[in-house]
Write a structure and sequence with these properties.
Layout (H helix, E strand, L loop, with lengths): L8 H12 L8 H13 L12 E3 L5 E3 H9 L8 H6 L10 E2 L3 E5 L7 E5 L4 E2 L6 E4 L5 E3 H5 L8 E2 L6 E2 L4 E3 L7 H15 L22 H10 L1
Antiparallel strand pairs: 1-2, 1-3, 4-5, 5-6, 7-8, 7-11, 9-10
Bound molecules: zinc ion.
InterPro entries: Rtf2
Protein name: Replication termination factor 2
Pfam family, one: Rtf2
Length: 228
């Protein structure tokens, strides 16, 4: 441990996020290795070891859901560095994340602070060694091969774990490499969803103005009143 041992964790956040930023390799190789491993083991927002419930955003980053709730509840974001505020600015409501299922947090026998996350479908530990996805409809985490194999002719695709129907827009890569084909696909996916007026979790965006062309039912009028 260095001389900084007494400082609070906020400082760690800043240095760690610096090292990850833009996928640039930090001059210190050890730092790079730590960052690569930590994205599979630590909450991206708080850098705390991952603990259930775990959630993910449209970029496939992993978070402790409780930390996202704290983030959302903090209106002025005073407890967060400017860098964190920039990096997580797209997370504005719970609809911007999906709670993940069918995973388990495994604690290291020697050091309980060391955790890894296991995908129960196939029993693999989440890491960069294998590609993983989750489905926004059900939150199930799956090895990528488990969903790509299902791509064949069947018009309706179903989660191999829980049988929920889904389509390509419901599939999110977990921790894709920066500037990879997968991370580009995720950006294209969220652009498409926004055009379709949908949140990351598939729920409709709440529109401020309602269209006059339809929806004159008593129910819609009631909704209109209640939103004003
Ligand atoms: Zn499922």
């Amino acid at each position: 441990m260095g001389g900084d041992g007494g400082t609070i964790t906020k400082k760690t956040h800043i240095t760690l996020h610096n090292s990850i930023k833009d996928g640039k390799v930090a001059p210190d190789d050890n730092r790079k290795a730590f960052s690569d491993a930590s994205i599979w083991q630590c909450c991206r927002l708080s850098n705390k070891p991952l603990q259930e419930p775990i959630a993910s955003d449209y970029k496939g980053r992993l978070f402790n859901k409780i930390e996202i709730v704290k983030w959302l509840l903090s209106k002025d974001k005073q407890g967060y560095s400017q860098e964190q505020q920039d990096e997580f600015k797209d997370i504005k409501r719970l609809d911007d994340i999906v709670e993940l299922h069918d995973i388990s947090v495994v604690h290291d026998e020697k050091n309980s602070n060391e955790v890894s996350v296991r995908c129960n479908f196939g029993e693999d530990i989440l890491s960069e060694n294998k590609a993983f996805v989750y489905l926004t409809k059900c939150g199930c985490v799956l090895p990528k091969v488990a969903v790509s194999q299902k791509k064949t002719s069947v018009p309706e695709r179903r989660c191999p774990n829980c049988n929920t129907a889904y389509d390509d827009l419901d599939t999110v890569f977990i921790n894709p490499a920066n500037a990879s084909k997968e991370s580009t696909q995720l950006e294209e996916r969220i652009t498409k969803l926004r055009e379709m007026k949908l949140h990351h979790n598939g729920k409709p965006l709440k529109l401020k103005k309602r269209s006059k062309t339809k929806d004159q039912s008593p129910e819609s009028k009631r909704q209109k009143k209640s939103t004003i």
